[in-house]
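Batch manifest, entry 17 of 40.
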Amino acid sequence: MIHEGILRFRGSRYLWWGLGLSAGSALLYSTQRGNHPPSGGTWQGYTLGTIGALLIIWLTLLGMRKRSYASAMGSVQGWTSAHVYLGLALLVVATLHSAVRFGWNVHTLAYALMCAVIGSGIFGIYTYLSSPRQLAQNSGGRPRSVLFAELFQLDNKGRDLARACDPAVSTAVKSSIERTTIGGGVYAQLFGVDRSWFMRADSESTGSQLVRNIDQQAVVDYVADRVSRTAKRGEPATLQALIAVLCRRQAVLRRIRRDIRLQAWLRLWLYVHVPLTFALIAALIAHILTTFMYW
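Output type: structure tokens
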């Protein structure tokens, strides 16, 4: 798959580049000894800092490359592969540049933001590699619009069958369709929160009440319970058909909600990764300016 090819691009070429950069940085760092203990202020530290800063700037160019469709500067797949491996190598370079000396200052802030960007990037790669496969398995290769079209047909069929049943059943089924919720806010999309309800009515009484209908299970159980209690001839067969429709509707809704949840997680990391990257650039500029002001 193309998503897996990002990590294996041309024999994992950029993995070796990243390992080579990390090894070279460690070797350069090891030359700091004697009267010049490791720090960001030695020539080795400045060299590592320059490499790290250039890496950060280059890594931010991936978004521009994705939008430059006519660019001859390598494929997007290659850029993305390099972005992953060189981004991981950046963590080694920056850590050696700092000599693991931290404090309450803009320098540590820049380092912390860099770690946050890399961490969100790792999560993004995991999501980017796993979600397309899960989305395809969940939908059976069909777009979400096809699932919604099937849901619409099941809703109509459910209403038609419910009209032939006891008024209490008809009320319950129709209200469960009308009060079904899909998606919602960010939290609801990410965790598949279901806030569906249905109007539970009893033919033996005049009262009715709204009941939670998470995963449509409550209305399915309600209709199933009516099969053995109905007094109308022929209604048990109609109720059985209605249960089959409701169960199929339940399965389709599960697929739709799972599709929405996977898509939401696929987008979430970008909403975190991109703002953190801009914050990192600002902190990096402040880090460089303060360094040269007190050099």
